[in-house]
């Protein structure tokens, strides 16, 4: 397996950062929907769905950190 050069490593870390930013926005929006749905007749269903979205966002965020950590380890940074 070839090792990424510094430019590739930086680009990957930037993308991981962008992924994490997007996931944070998604998670915050999901939380807002949960709060706003409190008066809805289907609030329990909406809340369950949002719980899943938030959980999956956290998983993807963790994966993004793992990718970044792996790149840092590969490049000695």
Keyword list:
77 residues, mainly alpha, single chain
Would you give an account of this structure?
The chain is mostly helical. It is built from two helices and no strands. The mean pLDDT is 82.
DSSP strand tally: 0
SSE pattern: HH
**Global mean pLDDT:** 82
Distance between the termini: 18 Å
Helix content: over 70%
Number of helices: 2
Sheet of most strands: none
The number of domains: 1
Q: What class do helices, strands and sheet pairing give? A: mainly alpha
Task: Provide a brief overview of the structure.
By secondary structure, this protein is mainly α. The chain has helices at 6-36, 43-75.
Helices, strands, pairings?
Blueprint: H1 6-36, H2 43-75
């Amino acid at each position: 397996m070839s090792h990424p050069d510094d430019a590739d490593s930086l680009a990957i870390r930037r993308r991981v950062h962008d992924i994490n930013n997007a996931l944070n926005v998604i998670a915050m929006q999901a939380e807002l929907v949960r709060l706003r749905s409190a008066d809805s007749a289907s609030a329990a269903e909406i809340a369950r769905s949002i719980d899943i979205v938030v959980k999956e966002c956290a998983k993807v965020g963790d994966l993004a950190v793992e990718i970044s950590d792996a790149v840092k380890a590969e490049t000695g940074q």
